[in-house]
Amino acid sequence: MAIPPSVIEDIRARCDIVDVVGSFVQLKRSGSSSYKGLCPFHNEKTPSFHVDTARQSYHCFGCGKGGDVFRFLMEKESVTFYDAVHMLASRAGVIIPDDAPDGDLESARQRAGAKERLYRLNEAVSGFFCRNLREHPDSEAAQYLRRRGIPDDVAQKFRIGAAPDSWDAALKFCRAQGFSEEEGVTAGVLHRSEGGKVFDQFRNRLVFSIFNESGRGVGFSARSLEPKPQDGRKYVNTPETPVFRKGALLYALPLAREAMVKNKLAILCEGQLDVIAFHRAGFECAVAPLGTAFTPDQARVLKRYTNHVALAFDSDGAGRKAVLRAAEILLPLSVELKVIRIPGGKDPDELFASGGAAAVAAAVEAAVPWLNVVTDELGEKFDLDSPVGKGEAAAFIGGFLKLVENRVELESYVRAAAACLKVSEEAIFAELSSLRRHDRRREEFRATAVVPQPGRAVKYSPAILTLLELAVNSADAARLIGELLEPDELDDSDPVAAAINRAVAGALNGEHAEAVRGLGALLENQPSPELSKALVSHIEYTDVERAVGDSVREFRAAKKRQLRAELMEKLRRSGDPEERTRLLAEIQKAR
User: Fold this and answer.
1) CATH of the domain at 276
2) pTM of the shown model
3) Would you state the pLDDT for residue 534?
4) Mean pLDDT of the region 432-457
5) Whole-angstrom Cα distance, residue 332 to residue 109?
6) What is the 3-state secondary structure (H, E, C) of 497-563?
7) Structural domain boundaries enclosing 495
8) Which pLDDT score is estimated for 590?
9) Does a structural domain hold residue 457?
């Protein structure tokens, strides 16, 4: 969104550069309208950094950096111009209007004002939760933090708090601060039942405050303090709101931005406690998704700060799958990707607790390239002693290599893959070419395929409908589906497939119930009788593992039958001998 020039000038006029720079640098007056200090952008012993109040600008005679108040914040906080404007607007109390449809600026200002109220509400409630934790040192939340070895100063730095064991504590606090019930519900701090009763969203939980890239409070992630929560949810996150979009946020990003740029590294963890462990160990470049699978939006945020990312996920099966999924997202961005392997099957939090900063530093230093994790999977998945097994393994590796667009990077990876499989580099490149041709043909087919018109019934195979019912009704089944099926086997453009993927992602991250509750939103844009039926069904399977296994096998068989039918139809229409030969080969391969 383009910010109106008049708003930018208003922010500039209200933000005196001496005040802004002075919050980062100790300045001393040097003349009638000038201040000087040690440059925050390079190491120096003699001050060469000057701030001019008359021109509202800064310049360093040592490193050459200079500019206005916006440029200073962009350089110091490693943010975009857009984020710098928003950060300074918050400081100056200027409201930035949203896009104004049909030139309705007043309506846009009202929406912007409503958003600003949500930020302030979240920040106020964050303070409420933090005070509640400090004022009750014997509470379950305080005892939990002590057991995890997290001292008070760390809890304060990361804005960790505690939600009281009450149905209306946050509700009363919001009212006392001048916020309406509706604002509390919109912010996700309060919840309105179907009967209209309003009560607290978070109760008797340890609460991690979530801030956006600009450092504004947007929501919370709350951990249960009970071994077996009554609602079955270990974590409860703020629902999607006008300021909280879980798939675009990263925990602790405002605390990690500067270190990412300085260290040329971002460490991506699984959860909040792992992030805190890395920060305490001296690696303040660590962040984490918010209880969901890593997303392309989050990847693009990391890319803005560094081209080097290290993944620090658990070493179990789910963790290895998470590494492979993250690689699929990050590789197209030309990111140097490594994996931090935590020794002994521990997570980073456990490693810091048992070995301290030195053990964490050793694990980071020993990080391996992402390709090592892929090749480590080969022996379990394929028979590498047979030509067929090697061919399947080459296709598996190729599925990742085809995502690498930089030729120099690709050649390096191909060399390593060829050495692992003991085949020539030419063989790997040939497999890549085949995979890319297949992808192009698939995209061409999708582009020319007949799109079902609204209201036209879509015929689903019984197998995928069974998978939908399993994924919706059972967290165990959803996790098992995630282990057996790759995400790209289900096309998210279809509501049934998208619903399965979301239920699986929720189960893998301990948020199955929340994910299933959110599936109804899919029906708003893509009406689906099959999904509607699954959401109200309550089916129990006596042997979940067998039901999932049988359904996955039949689902794949049905996809092969569909693919063969499509290829046969193209073969029937084709008059090109070369294309017919190719289609026949693909039909044979699809058996």
Assistant:
1) 3.40.1360.10
2) 0.66
3) 65
4) 59
5) 38
6) HHHHHHHHHHHHCCCHHHHHHHHHHHHHHCCCHHHHHHHHCCCCCCCHHHHHHHHHHHHHHHHHHHH
7) 462-589
8) 64
9) no
